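## Example pair
The file below holds two records. Each record gives the amino-acid sequence first, followed by its structure token line.
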Amino acid sequence: MLSYLALLPGIAAFLLATRHNPQYAFFRVYLPVLLVLPDYYRCIFPGLPDPTFNQSACVALFISFAMSGFPGYRFSLNDLWVIGYAACASISEYRATNYSDAQNLMFGMLFSGVVPYVLAKSLIEPFGNRFLFAKTCVLAMSAVSILNLIELRMGTNPWQLLLWRFFPGQGYEWVTTFRFGLARASGPYAHALLAGIMMIVAFRLQRWLQWSGAWPDKFRLLPRLPYKPAFWLSLITAGGLFITLAKGSWLAAVFGAGLVAVGRRKYRRKAMGVILAAMVVIGIPAFIAFLNYASVGRENAKDANQETAAYRYELIEHYIDIANQQPWWGWGLTHWPKVPGAESIDNHFLLLLLMHGYLASAFFLLLLLGTMVRLLVYGLRQPATAPPGSSLAFTLAGIYLGYFVVIATVFMGQQTVPMFFMLTGWAESYMQRHSLEWATTGAAQSRLPSDTRPFKFRRVL
């Protein structure tokens, strides 16, 4: 009975959505709940799917969204890739087990994948809420970053300390890990590696907001705070990424920053050409050197870093043949043969291939790499933004590159999944509607005259 606490966000989301509108509940309930509350605590329903905090809010929000006539939604080809990925993963698990075992995965694919994608696609760009979405993410994850200092110092997760008694027997598999003699902060995101992905998103969105002039010069509640709020929020989100002590996330953040830097240049195509040339001239030899470094085997590794790289190299050697035994649908969530000494699959692409096969993997790559490439092409075709750095296309592309790099070293789970699909829905709507970046930056909006006409009609030139 105590686990019914996970249903409270759903009740709140439905009440606010029916009293106001779906986007009101999306920004004031669903998004904060997703970012602040753990995703590994569930309300247990015998014989039915077991929703988490954010999934219960998502179900209620989608019901009200459908009752309102799907406001803001417009079909695009990308929708088929999202549905295809969710369908392939669900069919894979059903084939590997049965419906009663697969229902939670099917429920998760729907309300942690498809529906967050549709909601973000429909409620952000069509209603002019891009700054509201980014600010909500930044403020929520800044609060998480500050609270994560408790875990860094004490080695105890404060979310688990507060919530474990309401969800007996749940969440114990997620323990605080240590590196350099310090606790690695995971917060509500289950593991420090997953927290690193979330903090990359927060930092990149914060830098975009800062460059766009979206924050005021003073916070109303902290009028005497030295320096501008944007400075502090950038510092906090960067600190939140740092205290995860996740080296893969640090590396991914560097790669993402390099791509975002292209969007800050006046001559973007030349800058992009330099990046591509560097990938060929420097990247290929570096990749070959890394393969030589990682292929020595764990027993011949000279230090812990080389041993970690060798382990991930061995994973591909061990499991690619096992994946090819069930190429189209995979083995299901946990049913592939385990290689002794290599039970942890620290590579989401390999893990996805094992779990759900080549079909689901192809759809996922279409969403990840396909959206990133389309964002870059879209950004390169637009004029340089003012102020520099306010290009949403390059910001989102940098986040996607960060995702790509980091999930090559860790699985993608918990809140990183709905966040990925929301970003995909936002990016799709942004490109689908041919939004003009210069007309929607914070600095540009502050120069636009306010429209005080009593009756406003849409004029199209």
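Second record, same layout:
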Amino acid sequence: MIDRITSWDPGHRGTAVKNVALSEDFFDDHFPSKPIMPGVLIIEGMAQLSGLLLEEGVRRDTGKNIKALMSIVERAKFRLPTYPGDTLEYEAVGVSVNELGGRAKAQARIRGELVAECTLTFSFHEIHNEKLEARRAEVLALWMRGLDQHAAR
């Protein structure tokens, strides 16, 4: 649910964008006559950015190859609907990290207006799957390429 990362400070803060297109599969059912992006998918975008932010901070600081699994969503609030054609701007800020997991506060905005916000808690698990790690690195490189393009502007 992320198209590109636009700023990146592992473990501390990151931003990303998602361009919401009418061609997204979820709009077929949500809702055919008035397409609105499901709130759970907005949370998913915030969780992807937040989990990756915490994972990369731990990897950088400790060298541990961990995966952050979302375990708690707190105080989720949805303030405005998201429609096809909108660009969601995600922001995640690391709140706390220890050997077991971490927390991040996340927000989604459209043109600077707050759409959704929540606090996310993740548990950390060591990765022992080469295919999963290879796929993770591939997706991260794709999202980071967006960061390189953004930084060049």
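Notes on the second record: DSSP finds two helices and six strands in the chain. Helices lie at 39-62, 130-151.
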